[in-house]
Amino acid sequence: MGVVIADAGPLIALAKIKHLHILKDLFSEISLTQAVADECLRVKSDDAVLIKQAITLGWLKCVDNPDFTHALSKSLGLGELSSIEYALQNKENTLLILDDALARKQAIRKGLMIIGTAAIVFTAQRKGLISDAEAVISQLNQVGYRISPAVVSQLKSSLV
């Protein structure tokens, strides 16, 4: 994989349940824009500490916000906008980790390859990095990060 870019939602969600390491295990380096870093680190919390440590260790690589040259929905937050724009400017062999529905639609319309948190969790199980993807999804739901049963069912069937 070339450039892997993460939006704040998946980073915060996985950090909240102490599973941020899944991203490191799947992708050796992940880029995040300054806007995403700011969003992740804005609130002093345990998940912010884990994200800050990953940035310090260098596997989460903070990059400058890109110049905005593509037409994107004004309904998106700065983190989502900057992530999509950065992906568009590095389009060759780029993967965008993104969960927000509107942001995903925008990214798909622009021809970007995307993956969400739930698919990352099931990929981690398939690669033997975690033993039970559904248990991790349950933890995410318990901390308020909603992943629909339909998405879980679809991803679960892809394991068979």
Provide the descriptors you would attach to this structure in a database record.
mainly alpha, three-stranded parallel beta sheet
* Mass-distribution shape: globular
Q: Secondary-structure element order, as H and E?
A: EHHEHHEHEHEHHH
Largest sheet: 3 strands, parallel
Low-pLDDT residue spans: none
Number of helices: 9
Strand order of the largest sheet: 1-4-5
What proportion strand?
5-15%
What's the β-strand tally? 5
* Head-to-tail CA distance between termini: 24 Å
Question: How much helix, percentage-wise, in residues?
Answer: 40-55%
What class, by secondary structure content?
A: mainly alpha
Mean pLDDT: 90
Our Rg estimate from Cα atoms comes to 15 Å
Concise structural overview:
With 160 residues, the chain is mostly helical. The chain has 9 helices and 5 strands. It is globular and about 40 Å long.
